[in-house]
Batch of 3 targets.
Target 1
Amino acid sequence: MAYIAHIRESDRKHQLVEEHLLEVKTLAEFYGESLGIKHITGLAGMLHDMGKYTDKFKNYISEAVEHPESPPKRGSVDHSTAGGRLLYTLFHTGKIDRFKGILSEIVGNAIISHHSYLKDFLNPDLESNYLNRVRDKEIEEYEESVQRFFEHTMCEEDFQQYVNQAALELSEYMRKNSSISLENKCMFLTKFVFSALIDADRTNTRCFEEKSMHESKVQHLEGLFETYYSRLMAEINSYASYRSSPINLLRNQMSEQCDRFAEKPSGIYTLSIPTGGGKTLASLRYALKHARMYNKKHIIYVLPYTTIIEQNAAEVRRILQDDTNILEHHSNVIDEPNEDDEYMEGKMSIREKLKLAKDNWDSPIIFTTMVQFLNVFYDKGSRNIRRLHNLSESVIIFDEVQKVPVSCVSLFNAALNFLNQYAHSSIVLCTATQPALDFVEHKLNVSPNAEMIEDIHHVITAFKRVEIRDRATDEFFNNDSLVEFINDRIGETQSVLVILNTKSVVKNLYQQLLANIVEVPIYHLSTSMCAVHRNNKLDEVRKLLKNGDKVICVSTPLIEAGVDVSFECVIRSLAGLDSIAQATGRCNRHGEFELRQVYVIDHEEENLNHLKEIKRGKQISKRILIDLKRDSRSHGGHLLSVQAMERYFQEFYTDFKSALDYSIPKLGQSMTNLLFGGVADNTYFEEYRANKKARLPLFLANSYQTAAEHFYAINDLTTPVIVPYSEGGKDIIAELNGAERIDDFSKLLRKAQQFTINLFEHEIRSLDKNGGLERILDGQLLVLRDGAYSEEFGLDIENDSWSGLELF
């Protein structure tokens, strides 16, 4: 009898269970090769849908397809537990081989979780979600599904041999000499296996549904990095006539140093080029040469803000002459529901198509954000973790790495150590202000002689293009006095950039400037605008700057990290030294003028009570400014010296010491303990032993699901919303609403990222109350109505003109 895994929507063709299992196994094996664990990932692939070898599932899927108007009862068939139970029964009962026991836990957890997220081996209620599934739950037709698996997928003798190979891989992985603890190794291995399984399963299902063959971009682009490197060098050589200025000569020297450094083996390195020093092209030169020499599959740029993604990706596309193979990933656009979707298997609904849409970072060059990078490792849901395996065998460049959220420093360090030591990736920490990331228990294992730039102190001095003027220690500004100050500065110069810490103060200042300064174009930038909107505004500003016309721009900090603009004068509201350093990079960026001024002010109208890191950074910076006012020779003689930066980061991380391991006060645990602290550090384990009067009958005690549910890279709890900005935004909303094919959803969701903003819950409630939001795609996607989006400000909740308007 034939057992069915999927029924295609278009022609009702059946994909047999054995076909699906063996195809997913093959693809998962390919994903596991980078870690030397192809049999471990393959084992997850061949067992994940073993529970479909039942008469009940066959009837269920047939009914779901034939009668979509009345689908089977939710959760009526559990097909994901059987594979995990088979491993537990065979290798975790009776006389247990240690490596096969750990293997059954790691692979079994991935299998039982592939319709949701990894289960807790031990949760806060002192229960094991894993054991509840693989040991305790009743599974209908389990014995029959085991028999059919061995008959149709792999015979028992071959299966035992396959498991032996997987156990050997696990022992070699565990015994590798490294600084990573055993619990840490197991945690990252489990997540890697889960990632490989999720991607292999979804990719195979999508290919079957669309009658296509799986084609990895990386597999079919041999020699691409060689071509890219040639094009980059042609671009760099074309700059020869512009190298006469001291700054351009220095940029070229640093670029050549990065080229030579690329010949070194993969490691964790630092690239401390000052702001305006050409970090993007220098790091790309390193990455392309290193990828070519060491057979890397991806080059991944991780940046703090979406603003820089758009700018840098556009520049890289232009230089490399390729629009196809360079991916921008700003946000997920769709928030994945935190629930099990196993009950939906069999019906090709909108939600199922969105789940299968290609979103796995398999492009050769990827630009993404720090938040998205951290979400891959630690956030809930399967959409994020699906990308993890594609971080292996890569060159990963962290631009402005000082922007790692304080609570995530230990988690960030742990992820990088794994990627370098086990996943064969080379890491570049690229910033003008290298932070002291070793003020934590879980330290970053930076390679010896890690700095790419020679004589960094000389370079910092040579790149001086601005003077910092202290207007923060003896006075305070409000928006009234700041308008007067800006008016004075624009009378002396052609361009002024003002960077303040909060959106509300920026918006109010912009409105006051419009009322008081009528002769000068004034621009406003904030994260209330979607990416395309901000980019359009920046293009207008750049045009005025290039022509030498007068212009004033008021912005939140989004403009300061890597955005290629150069103003004659910058005013920066007091914040951390790293932020002030970045702001200076927007002033006289290319040395067009003699020394220009960056004014540091203390703005009394900014409410930083909910921005604790900015507030603390501001306090430390002010103390250093006061010291310099008392003694001009202190801290190396200026605010942004190496000595001042070292003091700043040491004080900053010391102040946040209790937060560095991602404390979860509600649970009385840290994230690091839940994920890789081991049984000795997990208080649940001790409580379990005291309450149950017995040891936990498992090798692992990680609380994956609990940790993921409490993880937020930035604690903002926002929801993505697509906005109807310009015809482009309106067209994407309309096309998404009418899309049917999975491939169309993939392309449209990718485009939609640039028309997306993130809203807080109170903003969503306010918009809902006034009819400013529309839900499309069976409620999976939020879109903003026209009147709630302003050409001036982006999101405009105060405008009630959208009430009653139709979206289409």
Target 2
Amino acid sequence: MLSARIRIALRLVAVAALAAVTAGCFQPMYAERTDGTPALREKLMGVELPPITDKPNASREARIGVEVRNALAFKLYGNATGMPPTHRLVIRFTTSRSSLMLDPNTALPTGENFGIDAQYNLVEIASNKSVMTGSTFSRVSYDMPGSYQRFTRTRALRDAEDRAAQEIAENINTRLASFFTAGT
């Protein structure tokens, strides 16, 4: 029988050997490449974001579409404006609202849920073929203090819309980064 110290030492050696073997497999997503392939940031900057045009002009949903597009553009490009496009990202979405709580005295809602369901399609510009499709969603809740105050209700809804749009942009950005890193 091996003593407990020897077994622990053998386990540590096995873990160190496994770590040494797999250390070259892992690399940061946003790291600069030395083999000449474009970095993830450059690939993301090649994604064109056309305006979301399937919503009526000057509607609440049109404003949400602009918010989603702007948030995603900032996540993809940062302060830059992008590079010559290699891909086009087409986004479509629907919104929903539901009351969570009602005031028993006034029967007015005091808490609501706002949701966005988005579908996106990444098209390679050179071949005009879809290379990735997906869907994502966001649900945010918001309170309406003073249910008789119209402005607070409107502002609470708008803040919820903005938070949901940011979440949708983050979800799509993460999926695009995964696609450009792994190719799937």
Target 3
Amino acid sequence: MATLPNPLPLLGLPPGTLVDTTAGAPWHEPLLWYADEPAQPGDWARLRATGRPLGLLPVLIDGGRRGQWPEVWDLDPGETSYPGDHDAEDVLAEYWGEYASDELEDAAEWPGLAPAPAAGTAGTPDELAAQMADQLTGGARTALVSARRSADIPAAIGWSGPLNHENDVARLCAVLRSWEDRFGIRVVSLGFDTLTVSVSRPPTTVAEARALAAEHFAFCPDTIDSAPPNNLDAYAEKHLLGQETWSFWWD
């Protein structure tokens, strides 16, 4: 994957860790920096203001219940393609064809991409992301990644969280790019196998939410499986309608 010049080694940052190991081998430049101390409210906004002019974007890193931090994640940017080389609808339609008939009680033909909602929440996508980051801190750490846009963060570090679903995370990032454009999402938090995004233009009608639920299932079937019944309408109304945070977990 093509990357921006990486200024992480030159940037004066709080005490933290520069991760430069990929799948057990050294990488030619740091993939990310993350703080030694748990994130505090306001850290996200400050890091974004510092990093954005240099091509660095913030994300929360969560060790999760397994206590696994990025230096032991199987990061592999060398095997990751470029998100812009993939079409979001093609990617989702392929996943839908592979998983829907076996795992959904109400499966049908791929319905196509959901329309973008007409209106969004107050504030910009980045302002909402900062607010969500402040709410999600807990034991998470703030991190900086060299990436062109928030949706590209997983691909920029070769994140392997969805490995059992997709070997090339750039294909999922193509979907995240489409969600950035349509729903104003930002990647807020990454764990070993989890992803959380803020959503500044969530579905505001049941019809919009139901259309989007098909995309969520194709993107991460485990999300629907972990929220029974395996019914897209139920998932849409409970987890998508008006929701400003979407969370995904890959088994």
